[in-house]
Amino acid sequence: MNRYSTSRSSTHRLSSLRSAPRAKRFRSTRRSNTYRRPRRSWKALKKGLAYGCYLFTAITILASVSLLLVVGYQYCLTSPYFCIKDASHICLQGLERLTPTQVLKIAQLRPGTSLLAIKPLEIEKALQQNPWIRRAELIRQWPDRLTLVIKEQHPLAIVHLDHFYYMNHQGVLFKSLEPTDSYDLPVITGLTSDYFQPAGDQLSPLLTRIVDLIGLLKQTPAPLNFDNIAEIHIDPERGLTLYTIGLGVGIDIGFQGHNQKLANFQRLLPTLERTGEIRRVARINLNYPHQVLVSFRKPDLASP
Questions:
Q1: Regarding predicted confidence, which is higher, 276 or 200?
Q2: CA 72 – CA 59 distance, rounded (Å)
Q3: pLDDT band, very low/low/confident/very high, at 291 (cuts 50, 70, 90)
Q4: Domain limits of the chain?
Q5: Fold of 157-301
Q6: Mean pLDDT over residues 279-296, rounded?
Q7: What pLDDT does residue 38 have?
């Protein structure tokens, strides 16, 4: 009897639940199916602690190694083993115009300087700020020696623009002349600064002709040679004109065929000197293949 009553009661409740509104049924179901978050297991906690210990150990080792490296570097930086002992441990190569004292002062190198403290690029850049140094290279020779290789500038001529400048074989104006500098070079006139390129660029066709002519004049015997040329005047359209120290007149030589033209002048000069006409010469034009055109001053204007 009791079993029947219970079964019947359960059937009645189920029937009531089915006949109840939908919202009410949902609330009843949610109350009867509440979810409880499981507690964190001891195994997961142990794994997290192990990972934390591993990370702390790795950071500690890394910091210790970094500290040892810093301390070791500071020790080597001040160690006499890596310091320049004396001036004989500094080798200077390529000096012609500059003195060792000037170079070492610019580079700030002296006995006692540590090779570890030296910054080659900064020293090379500082040296190349000097107008007479075209290129500098510092080579460290461990543990306590170094070599400085210097390539100096070699002036080929003097260029007259707003001021007088030294020009090298690459057509670069590398230095403005000062009163103490030598002026014993041919002076190039007639050009603007646009014709002269910065360092690293190639020679323009016009500058190439000038450099080639100067090289040819260095191989030509006197009087029309490099040592006797006072001025090289350039007209971009008409060509080059030479002015010598002794003759004092313009010698038109153009842009091409300089070798043959100089040979023609060498054959003409003895005749002018023998006849005494050299004193009446006003201008010499070498721009003809097989002859020389000479202009003379009037007799009343000739020198005695």
A1: 276
A2: 20
A3: confident
A4: 43-78, 82-152, 157-301
A5: Rossmann fold (3.40.50)
A6: 91
A7: 55
